[in-house]
Design goal:
Layout (H helix, E strand, L loop, with lengths): L6 H5 L5 E5 L5 E5 L2 E6 L14 E4 L5 H6 L19 E3 L9 E12 L5 H6 L5 H11 L12 E9 L3 H12 L4
Antiparallel strand pairs: 1-7, 2-3, 3-4, 5-6, 6-7
Length: about 180
């Protein structure tokens, strides 16, 4: 996942949420009235649910039931079906090296302008107004702007253990100093 302006906030612990615009065809996968994953759109009308790609999924152990029930996540996508906790690379820019990894704790869908002060703080900002300013700098395409009030996925996450070690290793190994 790209955190162009905010990856440092994850490192210092002030950012534990991110909002991503819902793309056409994306939809939640719900178990026991809780979103546990985001499904990518079908590639063809004949494609079965277990053939679809998973964009994100929650790393809380409830996925194991889904996998064992025979429905299953696509085993080729982001740790699905392997029993491993899915993690996601944090990049400072598109096409950049992974700086460290995060795991998703919860997913919900809402309209962008439903953000609360508490959520703005979890996004790493001091206020909703500061969040709006940052969002507006990064999202200026029609349908993604603050004024458009798009539906968004709200992802709550934690850095994976060893985050400082992983970042230091990347700096040493690849000369990455974002």
């Amino acid at each position: 996942m790209i955190f162009q302006e905010t990856w440092r906030m994850i490192l210092d612990g002030t950012k534990t949420q991110t909002r991503r615009v819902v793309r056409p065809g994306e939809h939640p996968y719900v178990l026991n009235n809780e979103i546990v994953g985001v499904m990518m759109p079908q590639r063809s009308p004949l494609e079965k649910v277990y053939d679809r790609r998973i964009k994100w999924k929650v790393a809380n152990g409830r996925i194991d039931w889904f996998t064992q029930a025979g429905v299953g996540w696509n085993s080729g996508s982001r740790g699905g079906g392997s029993g491993k906790v899915p993690t996601y690379a944090v990049q400072a820019g598109r096409g950049g090296k992974a700086l460290f990894r995060i795991k998703i704790k919860a997913i919900r869908q809402e309209h962008l302008r439903d953000i609360t002060q508490e959520n703005a703080v979890a996004e790493g900002f001091q206020s909703v107004n500061a969040f709006v300013a940052a969002w507006s700098r990064l999202h200026n395409r029609k349908g993604e702007r603050w004024a458009d009030n798009p539906k968004v996925w709200c992802l709550t996450f934690d850095p994976v253990d060893g985050i400082a070690d992983a970042l230091l290793l990347n700096i040493i190994k690849h000369g990455i100093v974002p």
